[in-house]
Structures are given as C-alpha cells and as structure tokens.
C-alpha cells in the first residue's frame, strides 16, 4: 500500500516530542519534508528520515508528493499556513489554538470545505483513557444531573519545554497572541465541551501576566463558565504552578463526585453519595515531563480518518467552538463583565 507522505512545518518541541515520533511509528506514514526558519532544525530531521529540508513553507507546499501537513508553528501562523496547505490540497493537522480570531477559524473551516481535505486540530485531551471513560459514565446517567465542575491545567511554564527556552515565542504576544489560556486553557475548554456534550454560553474571567518576566502574554487565568443547560464551573490555566503539573478535572453531580487525573494512583475516581466508590487506574495522562512522552493518539486518529475518509473527532468546527470560549474569556477580562459566547 502507498504510504501517506507527511510534511512537518515547525520543528520545535511539539514536533520533536509528539508529531514526528508518532508519525514515524505509524506504518501507513512516510515523513518526507521538514520546514523551520532555523535551517539546522529542519535539516536534523530531514537527515534522520531521509527527507527534504525547507526554510520557506510555501516551497514545501509546492511539492505534489506531500499529502499531509502538520502545522507546529507559533500560534499566529497556524491559520495562514493551514489555509495555504488546504488550498494546496493537503490534509492538515494543526496545533492548538487553531487561530487567533473567530474570523481566522472560519477561514480555515471554509478552506477545508472548499478543498475537500481533512482539517483536524490537535486537541489530545479527548483521547486520554480517563477522559474517554468519563464521557461514557456521564452519558450513562450514573452520576445523575451534573451541577458543577472545576478543571485546571497548569505547570511551571513553557521555558522548560520549548526549543528556545526562556526566549521562546510562547512569551511574545505578536507571535503567540495568547499565553497560558491558549497553550493550556483551550485544551480544557475542548475537553469540557466533549465530556458535558453541550456548549458554553457565558464566560467571566481574570487573565493576568504575573509570573513571567519579559512576557507580553497571560500566564495565569481563572474563568467561570456556564453551559446552555446551566452547568457552572471554573477553569484555571497557568504557567505559575511551580511544582507538580496539575491536569485535573472534577465533576460535582446529583449522585456523587467524579475526579479525573486528580490522584497519582487512580486516574478516575467516583465517590457516590450513598458511600460507594469506584477507582480506576487507566494509564498515565500525556505530560511534558521527561520520560512521559506516551502516544497522544492524535496522529493515529488523524491518519485513520484520512485512510477511511471519515471526519476527525476534533475537526475545524470543533476547534472553532473551543477557541470561542477562550476568546470570550479574554473579552470578559478586558471588559470586566460577563460576556456571551
């Protein structure tokens, strides 16, 4: 069988630790092109995979043999590169946040529709085993009505993860557009929408830059969100959690409490109000920590969708809805009021 030929645009840490090894481990894929403004980064991977290296993504997109593009660039380039790739009739897997505005997100969705190619946004939280299990539990009705939630995604910041350390584009508003809210918070808006099975309609938020010097983006945010059925809860996104990473979610429901990734030994715990409990050890959640680079399942799902001509779990429309919550949170902070989503 002819393999799907992949080009990676942006050869920093997310490509190095997630996209490239997961493509390389997929028997249906051949990595054929790498692009980065730092030529040495692209050349390193090109040499390793017997591929071509580029510093100009437009030159890469001219290559007819390339079937798929992974967009792993700074956030401000996600939309323009994704749109150009779709217009060149390439399937696209784009890192999050998918865009810097609703207008850009709409343009990406339109480009995918007009090209007939697949657009997927790399939200990996839906694929975490505890989260998949939680969705089925909520759907089963065992917890009864969901009243509230709290979720957090925080660590010490991208400087320990990014290829450029403390000089990373993550801290530059012009290139990043958004900080911890876009890096981490958008993952949790996507997860909550997926688990609750409904959309958020209102947001209120405090979004601050307090922990990182020489940063022009947010590094600490707390949001209050409300769904269409009236479920309310909090979402925290932070680069100021200078200890163990927090990637937990808790649901407070009619029949008990469900805790996800909130215990080191059990990834899903349910404490029922009748005194019974469940504890599930379902495997470690994906982490940036050294030695925890397990598969996100994102690339596997993306390639399967291309092979089977099926719609990705996180398509452009889904990515746009998750982005909208983050944009509303920013708007709320600026206006100092609750805003509709």
TrEMBL record:
Residues 4-123 form the Gfo/Idh/MocA-like oxidoreductase N-terminal domain. InterPro entries: Gfo/Idh/MocA-like_OxRdtase_N, Gfo/Idh/MocA_Oxidoreductases, GFO_IDH_MocA-like_dom, NAD(P)-bd_dom_sf. Residues 132-258 form the GFO/IDH/MocA-like oxidoreductase domain. It comes from the Bacteria. SUPFAM superfamilies: Glyceraldehyde-3-phosphate dehydrogenase-like, C-terminal domain, NAD(P)-binding Rossmann-fold domains. GO terms for molecular function: nucleotide binding. This is Dehydrogenase.
């Amino acid at each position: 069988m002819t393999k799907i030929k992949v080009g990676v645009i942006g050869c920093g840490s997310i490509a190095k630790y997630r996209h490239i090894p997961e493509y390389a481990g997929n028997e249906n894929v051949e990595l054929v092109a790498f692009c980065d403004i730092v030529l040495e980064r692209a050349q390193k991977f090109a040499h390793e995979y017997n591929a071509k290296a580029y510093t100009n993504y437009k030159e890469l997109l001219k290559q007819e043999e390339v079937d798929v593009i992974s967009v792993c660039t700074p956030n401000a380039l996600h939309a323009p590169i994704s749109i150009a790739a779709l217009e060149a009739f390439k399937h696209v897997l784009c890192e999050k946040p998918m865009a810097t505005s609703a207008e850009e997100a709409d343009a990406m969705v339109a480009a995918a529709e007009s090209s007939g190619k697949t657009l997927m946004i790399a939200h990996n939280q839906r694929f975490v085993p505890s989260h998949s299990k939680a969705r089925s539990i909520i759907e089963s009705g065992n917890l009864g009505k969901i009243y509230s939630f709290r979720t957090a995604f925080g660590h010490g910041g991208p400087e320990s993860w990014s290829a450029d350390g403390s000089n990373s584009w993550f801290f530059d508003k012009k290139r990043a557009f958004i900080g911890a809210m876009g890096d981490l918070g958008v993952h949790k808006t996507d997860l909550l929408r997926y688990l609750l099975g409904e959309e958020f309609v209102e947001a209120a938020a405090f979004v601050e830059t307090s922990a990182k010097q020489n940063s022009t983006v947010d590094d600490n945010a707390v949001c209050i969100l409300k769904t269409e059925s009236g479920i309310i809860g909090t979402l925290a996104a932070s680069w100021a959690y200078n200890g163990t990473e927090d990637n937990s979610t808790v649901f407070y429901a009619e029949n008990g409490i469900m805790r996800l990734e909130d215990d080191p030994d059990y990834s899903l715990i349910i404490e029922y109000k009748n005194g019974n409990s469940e504890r599930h050890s379902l495997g470690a959640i994906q982490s940036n920590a050294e030695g925890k680079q397990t598969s996100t399942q994102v690339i596997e799902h993306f390639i399967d969708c291309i092979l089977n001509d099926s719609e990705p779990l996180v398509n452009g429309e889904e990515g746009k809805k998750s982005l909208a919550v983050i944009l509303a949170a920013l708007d709320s902070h600026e206006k100092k009021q609750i805003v509709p989503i």
